[in-house]
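Exercise 7.
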Amino acid sequence: QVQLVESGGGLVQPGGSLRLSCVASGFTFSNYAMRWYRQPPGKERELVAAISGATSSITYRDSVKGRFIISRDNVKYTVYLQMNNLKPEDTAVYYCFVPGLNSWGQGTQVTVSS
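Solution. The predicted structure, written as tokens, is:
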């Protein structure tokens, strides 16, 4: 069955960096687009970044452009989210998602605070 396991979250000071990873299994990873979502405390889940299976198409929400980088390694079945210059408003639970399979990971907490 499809499994998505996120890791890399934690507590970081404003201006710091984190790299999230999402290891996938149970499907042919390179055939599917992948997305990162986040859910800030008390708010709706929102799309952060998306990458196509062939990495030819990448999109970001406006608030993370220039700070976050999504990438993927189709050999390692892993999608990454490099997050730089983190801000308190980036605090959220971050999830990876496979839109073609409607499957979510369990999420990883990112807290940006001094």
